[in-house]
Amino acid sequence: MTRFLYKLSNRNFKNIITAVFVSLFSAAVFAQTEDRAWNGKKCAVVLTYDDALNIHLDKVIPMLDSYQFKGTFYLIGSSPVVSNRIPEWRAAAKKGHELGNHTLIHPCDGNLPGREFVTSETDLSHYTVARAVNEIRITNTLLKAIDGKNERTFAYPCGDFTIKDTLYYNSLKSDFVAARGVTPGYLNKKEVDFSNVNSFFENGSSAEQMIAQVEEAEKKGSFIVFLFHGVGGEHPLNVDLQEHRKLLEYLKKRKKDIWVAPMVDVAKYIKQNYK
């Protein structure tokens, strides 16, 4: 009887030890998974470039290619840099860069301060929602003719969301995977607003400043979307080409921990895994 109780007690002890071990192992695996919840990495970085500039084709895309990174380029449909260089944009798309929609003529609300550059033709406050939607869909048709793709993201010109208090993107949610806004922030994956994805606007930023933003995203287990215009010139809103290169060098060195991908891929990943 004593021997039987000893065996029973010993068996229970082993079961308890096994259960504890499995529990600890599962917790460790879960913690590791949570720590690397961005496609197996600690955080995600999205590099976006607005306004379809020559320098994007001449300097930025070759630089991204040299580091094996893919970016998102938000194109203005009516831009001569689009119409005159379609084969080059098509080649960029074939390499994996996203051609995003930045509307047909880049309308902004001319009633807001600092909008002296807005003309009567490009004043969003003069638009109807129907006009905005039609022009954006026309741009989607153009972009599909260039890259052959059905999925892409949108970027608000000047970060303006409304036409006479109406959120015009509400009529376009089925046309895009997501829309990039201009408000900075590090969000939990489950809190992302795909109608207004946060981004960090860069103008005159140093590599040190941009790297610090990436490190903060990693610390928070979040992601960061960079918003560039000129990179080495061609736009009043500009980041030095070498500072941009230093950022890419840092991202390349941290490739085991940082996922660099186009906006459309990161948005799809969040939707598929956390929504």
Structure commentary:
This protein is of the alpha/beta class. The chain folds into 2 domains: 1-35; 41-274, Glycoside hydrolase/deacetylase (TIM Barrel, Alpha-Beta Barrel). The chain is built from 8 helices and 12 strands. The strands form 4 sheets. Strands 1, 2, 3, 8, 9 and 12 form a 6-stranded parallel sheet that branches. A two-stranded parallel sheet has the order 4-7. Strands 5-6 form a two-stranded antiparallel ribbon. Helix 6 (207-219) runs parallel beside helix 7. The model is unreliable at 4-8 and 16-32 (pLDDT under 50).
In short:
Keywords: Signal. This is Chitooligosaccharide deacetylase. With 275 residues, the chain is α/β, with parallel strands linked by helices.
List the helices and strands and how they pair.
Layout: H1 2-35, E1 43-50, H2 54-66, E2 72-75, H3 80-83, H4 86-94, E3 98-101, H5 129-147, E4 154-155, E5 162-163, E6 166-167, E7 179-180, E8 200-201, H6 207-219, E9 223-228, E10 230-231, E11 238-239, H7 241-253, E12 258-260, H8 263-274
Parallel strand pairs: 1-2, 1-9, 1-12, 2-3, 4-7, 8-9, 10-11
Antiparallel strand pairs: 5-6
InterPro entries: Glyco_hydro/deAcase_b/a-brl (IPR011330), NODB_dom (IPR002509), Polysacch_Deacetylase (IPR051398)
Organism: Flavobacterium hydrophilum
Signal peptide: 1-31
Annotation keywords:
275 residues, alpha/beta, TIM Barrel, 6-stranded parallel beta sheet, two-stranded parallel ribbon, 14% strand
Give a quick account of the main beta sheet: strands, pairing sense, barrel closure: 6 strands, parallel
Report the portion of residues in β strands. 5-15%
What overall geometry do the principal axes of the alpha carbons give? Answer: globular
Extended strand count: 12
- What would the average pLDDT be, to the nearest integer? 91
So, the CATH homologous superfamily of the largest domain? Glycoside hydrolase/deacetylase
Distance between the termini: 57 Å
Order of helices and strands: HEHEHHEHEEEEEHEEEHEH
CATH third-level topology of the largest domain: TIM Barrel
- Structural class, judged by helices and strands? alpha/beta
CATH level-two architecture of the largest domain:
Alpha-Beta Barrel
Rg, alpha carbons: 24 Å
CATH class of the largest domain: Alpha Beta
